[in-house]
Amino acid sequence: MGKRSMPEVSKASGPHVPVLLNEVVAALSPLAGKRIVDGTFGAGGYSRALLAGGADVIAIDRDPSVLPFAQTLDEAFPTQFSFVPGTFSGLDHLAGGRGVIDGVVLDIGVSSMQLDEADRGFSFMRDGPLDMRMSADGQSAADLVNTLETEALANLLYAFGEERKSRRIAQFIVAARETAPIVTTLDLARVIEKAIGRKPGDAHPATRSFQALRIAVNAEFEQLVEGLFAAERLLDEGGTLAVISFHSLEDRIVKRFFDPEKGGPMQSRHLPQVEMATRRWAKVAKAIKPGSEELSRNPRARSSILRTARRTGAKARPTSSEGLGMPVVRGT
């Protein structure tokens, strides 16, 4: 099989344009013989670029709608590519037993194809069922919106969406559902806009509330923490982890995971201090954000942040959210 040229970001295939693609590829150096896990496969943009560089790729995703993209890459790179359905929180089990893993990439965001499919219920810009489930299992956003009491709903919107007007929004939602259940994305968006208004030039008033509900429905913070520690267990010394996050709450968790000193002790205060001080990650790179050229091509990249680090030889830690700044919904 001949050597393939590396694709530029603008040439990435599929409906979802992967953000910071060139920077991710540079960090992971996908040379022939390397084995890399794409823990959030989506439409396969990162996987395709890594495969084109010569690496073997093990792709993971819990969304069944990505299967056609996985099949396309399997046909194009039959000896290099494999797909495993599942959540990246268990990537060490899903990708383990396949030899040394040289890198892991995690894109902690909703893909454009999910946002653009109205029936998935992720976007307030398109009318569809108020769902937001990435795997079609468990509670939907409609379940939360129509069952949570006012205080619990307000606390969720504040903790996961950093929505300062969460209490007023929750009050309007509870009042609206007394007339009829809120079952579509536009139903909810209208209620939120009625609650807090909309100023010209500002982001849509439902932005933070939709983020909060999506995070809650998919247990995204728990998935992120478990995925980070799974990568720590999976990667041997010298392996690289690249994580792309899309808002400050996620980025804070990633930053403190790589550098525990930023957030205080991550493990129980009862463990020996020497154990807490052991560094599992070295060469922690400065955060990278997209440049003006990429933003002009892909406005959805504007909030993305890439952080990378290299695994040391220290023993992996037990999974723990302590010290990571995990948002907590009060009253739960």
From TrEMBL:
Residue positions annotated to bind S-adenosyl-L-methionine are G44, G45, Y46, D61, F88, D107, Q114
Into which EC class is this enzyme placed? Answer: transferase
Entry's Gene Ontology BP terms:
methylation
**The keyword Cytoplasm is assigned to this record:** yes
Q: Where in the cell is it found?
A: Cytoplasm
Record GO terms (molecular function): methyltransferase activity
InterPro entries, per the entry: RsmH, SAM-dep_MeTrfase_MraW_recog, SAM-dependent_MTases_sf
Residue ranges of the region described as Disordered: 309-332
Q: What's its catalytic activity? A: cytidine(1402) in 16S rRNA + S-adenosyl-L-methionine = N(4)-methylcytidine(1402) in 16S rRNA + S-adenosyl-L-homocysteine + H(+)
EC number(s) recorded for this UniProt protein: 2.1.1.199
User: Looking at the Swiss-Prot or TrEMBL record, what is one Pfam family this protein matches?
Assistant: Methyltransf_5
User: Per the annotation, which location comes first and is thus the protein's main one?
Assistant: cytoplasm
- What keywords sit in the KW lines? Cytoplasm, Methyltransferase, rRNA processing, S-adenosyl-L-methionine, Transferase
Q: Which Gene3D superfamilies match?
A: Putative methyltransferase TM0872, insert domain, Vaccinia Virus protein VP39
Similarity comment text for this entry: Belongs to the methyltransferase superfamily. RsmH family.
Q: What does this protein do?
A: Specifically methylates the N4 position of cytidine in position 1402 (C1402) of 16S rRNA.
Name the UniProt record assigns to this protein = Ribosomal RNA small subunit methyltransferase H
Gene name for this UniProt entry: rsmH
